[in-house]
Design goal:
Structural class of chain A: alpha/beta
Shape of chain B: globular
Low-confidence stretches of chain A: 1-17
Strand content of chain B: under 5%
Distance between the termini of chain B: 13 Å
Oligomer: heterodimer
Number of strands of chain B: 0
CATH superfamily of chain A: P-loop containing nucleotide triphosphate hydrolases
Structural class of chain B: mainly alpha
Shape of chain A: globular
Low-confidence stretches of chain B: 254-260
Largest sheet of chain B: none
Number of domains of chain A: 1
Number of domains of chain B: 2
Mean pLDDT of chain B: 86
Largest sheet of chain A: 6 strands, mixed
Largest interface: A-B, 20 and 21 residues
Distance between the termini of chain A: 17 Å
Strand order of the largest sheet of chain A: 6-7-8-3-9-10
Mean pLDDT of chain A: 84
Number of strands of chain A: 10
CATH superfamily of the largest domain in chain B: MetI-like
CATH topology of chain A: Rossmann fold
Order of helices and strands of chain A: HEEEHEEEHHHEHEHEEH
CATH architecture of chain A: 3-Layer(aba) Sandwich
Chain lengths: ~270, ~260
């Protein structure tokens, strides 16, 4: 079923078809073994993501979208299927991918700049670490807070540090797991804008997981709609609206309703 | 970094012992106290000046401090790495934790005769007692610290491809740092107390030996000088460690339950 929708979508999405495929998810399934027995979290997921593309994975909570992202990040192993990054199999975490978690997960004993340098301080030269850290600090707008400790930051700032830490790692792809879900509405909107700006500036490939349909529509070029129990790809939707997206426009509303209906259908 | 000192609290803390000493001095002078075991504070003060002048105070204190330093350093070098290793290998903990709980019940002083039989009466048994006294708090707090490292932070380390050695250095040790530090503080005060006992039993040099010497020579004023020295040194060590804690762990302010 999922392969069908995927095929039909490829026809609908011609502008990316000549671009290089960066991430290819092939027929992924994941089964967890819990105390109550085996639970299938993901079933036969297939989709791809082009270099420089902004993709969101949308679905109700519990549909396995976080698990999917963690498999792409290499933090978890799929039961069957494969994830290809630039054509080679993902077997674990890599220098080409960086994940931002739902919580900032900053190290409380490190300052903002030390947190940002966390992923690179052991593998790069001192000058490189400095320049990458500076660059990241500028990108996430925290130059004035470089000496601050995480407990001195607001939730939005902390998540910006987490994004900065991922950027300093210089990955080809940024993987974001509901990064704004714990923030208040206005902070969330601001960070969404900043993320878009960052994407335009850096040209990174971004995969973002969210349960917020409006967020997916504001941000992404491609939306992967998942259905739960077990998680599978319901539809892959190309969003060709120009940026910045006007949330009140009929085109935006029309797509929002469409996705709503589509997600709710199996509820 | 270091919190502002509230002087009224300091004043109260100092005023109380001063008051006690005053009452003690007055009652001693009025002849209510037996000078054989409770000499007047002024007499103790005089003995202190004498002991500083003849060098015996500094010699004994230095002897004790040297042992303390050696013993404590050896303990830290043993207990912290061991605690990190054991803290990460959870199944190993099931093997050893009953044994450790058993050993923990035995006060260091109970081992002193065995240590003396095995190691003689000079430095070795004293250092052995210190190591024994400090090992458990340092080791157990390190294990606990490593155990309670946030797995979410470990995962960040994994996502950024830290090697296992770097993971220990960058995630485990700083995470467990506070707990390790608590262990060090407990361990050091345990060390100090155990050392005094060991010195009293082996009776060679050191503050503990000085106490016993005071008894042998019927010099209660000298005993009090030694006893007070133990208290004051212990207090100073603890203050220094607390300061270090604030200095090395400025993020500690984050934890609201710590209101010292």
């Amino acid at each position: 079923m999922s392969t069908n929708t995927n095929n039909s979508n490829k026809k609908r999405n011609p502008e990316n078809s000549n671009k290089e495929i960066l991430i290819q998810v092939n027929n992924i399934s994941k089964t967890f073994t819990s105390n109550w027995g085996k639970v299938q979290a993901l079933r036969n997921l297939t989709f791809s993501c082009h270099r420089g593309e902004f993709v969101t994975i949308v679905g109700p909570s519990g549909c396995g979208k976080t698990t999917l992202l963690r498999i792409i990040a290499g933090l978890e192993r799929q039961t069957t299927g494969e994830v290809l990054f630039k054509g080679s199999q993902v077997l674990g975490p890599g220098h080409d991918r960086a994940i931002v978690f739902q919580e900032p997960r900053l190290f409380p004993w490190l300052t903002v700049e030390q947190n940002i340098a966390f992923g690179i301080r052991d593998s790069r030269s001192k000058q490189e670490v400095e320049s990458l850290t500076d660059k990241s600090l500028a990108l996430v707008g925290l130059k004035d807070f470089r000496q601050a400790y995480p407990h001195e930051l607001s939730g939005g700032m902390a998540q910006r540090v987490a994004i900065g830490r991922a950027l300093a790692f210089e990955p080809a792809a940024l993987l974001l797991d509901e990064p704004f879900s714990s923030l208040d509405v206005s902070t969330r909107a601001r960070l969404q804008g900043e993320l878009l700006e960052l994407w335009h500036k850096t040209g990174k490939t971004i995969i973002l997981v969210t349960h917020n349909i409006a967020e997916a529509l504001v941000l992404s070029q491609k939306i992967i709609i998942m259905s739960p129990a077990p998680g599978s790809v319901k539809e892959v939707l190309a969003i060709d609206l120009p940026y910045p997206r006007e949330q009140n426009s009929p085109a935006f509303q029309e797509r929002k309703e469409y996705i709503h209906k589509n997600i709710g259908a199996k509820h | 970094m270091v919190k502002k000192i509230d002087y009224t609290i300091v004043l109260k803390g100092v005023a109380f012992p001063l008051l006690l000493i005053l009452v003690w001095e007055i009652t001693a002078r009025l002849g209510y106290l037996n000078a054989l075991f409770l000499p007047a504070p002024s007499k103790i003060g005089y003995a202190f000046v004498q002991m500083v002048a003849d060098g015996s105070w500094a010699v004994n204190l230095l002897a004790s401090m040297k042992r303390l330093a050696y013993g404590f350093l050896i303990t830290v070098c043993l207990a912290v790495p061991l605690g990190i290793v054991v803290g990460r290998a959870r199944s190993f903990q099931h093997w050893i934790s009953p044994t450790l709980s058993f050993l923990q019940q035995i006060p260091p002083i109970a081992w002193i005769p065995i240590f003396i039989l095995a190691l003689g009466i000079y430095e070795a048994p004293k250092i052995a007692v210190i190591i024994y006294a400090a090992f458990f708090p340092v080791f157990l707090n390190t294990v606990q610290g490593v155990n309670s490292v946030d797995p979410k932070l470990v995962e960040v380390g994994r996502a950024y491809m830290l090697s296992s050695l770097r993971m220990i250095q960058r995630v485990y040790i700083p995470s467990a740092g506070m707990s390790i530090f608590v262990g060090l503080r407990l361990g050091l005060s345990n060390c100090w107390r155990a050392l005094v006992m060991a010195e009293m039993i082996t009776r060679t040099t050191g503050i503990g030996a000085q106490i016993w010497e005071g008894r042998d020579l019927m010099q209660p004023d000298r005993i009090f000088v030694a006893v007070f020295t133990i208290g004051v040194v212990g207090l100073i060590i603890d203050i220094i460690l607390k300061r270090m804690e604030h200095r090395f762990m400025p993020w500690k302010k984050k934890y609201p339950e710590d209101k010292r």
